[in-house]
Write a structure and sequence with these properties.
single chain; 153 residues; alpha+beta; seven-stranded mixed sheet; 5 helices; 43% strand
Length: 153
């Protein structure tokens, strides 16, 4: 079992576990761009996300994950943009269903040094292209509707 999964996340067999994610974005030449990162295991494109962190609220947790996984600093929204579900692989034949509450994070700066720099790649995409890069349908829909969500958020 990977050491980054809290035992509380593995309790309640069969139920979905909660994670918090940061949809990192910026305006570039009048268009919304999204920063995606690669997962450590498969290298697929994802957003920074992780388990609840004691002492931090959901938005703060999402911001911490964005820093650790992508070197992002910026302003996190206190209200969520939406939710997506996925199955987190725990091993070759084991996974756990997760529900990710997503918070918008407007990127102010990308740091060159951050905790998971050697484990991931990061890249800016137009929001429509980012939607084509991710595997999760609900995350794809969030990315496609991002400009509208940001004007409301």
């Amino acid at each position: 079992m990977p050491n980054d999964i809290p035992s509380s996340a593995l309790a309640n067999e069969g139920s979905s576990r909660t994670q918090y994610g940061a949809l990192c974005w910026r305006m570039h030449r009048g268009k919304v761009e999204v920063l995606l990162i690669t997962s450590r295991d498969t290298g697929r494109w994802i957003i920074p996300k992780g388990w609840p962190i004691a002492g931090l609220d959901p938005a703060q947790t999402a911001a911490r994950e964005a820093w650790e996984e992508a070197g992002v600093e910026g302003d996190i929204a206190s209200q969520g943009l939406g939710v997506f579900d996925y199955d987190k692989a725990l091993g070759p034949k084991e996974s756990v269903p997760c529900s990710v509450q997503v918070f918008g994070l407007r990127v102010a700066e990308l740091k060159g040094k951050f905790p998971e720099k050697k484990e991931r790649r990061r890249k800016w995409f137009a929001h429509e292209k980012a939607a084509r890069k991710v595997a999760e349908p609900e995350l794809r829909n969030l990315l496609l509707s991002l400009p509208d969500l940001l004007s409301v958020a």
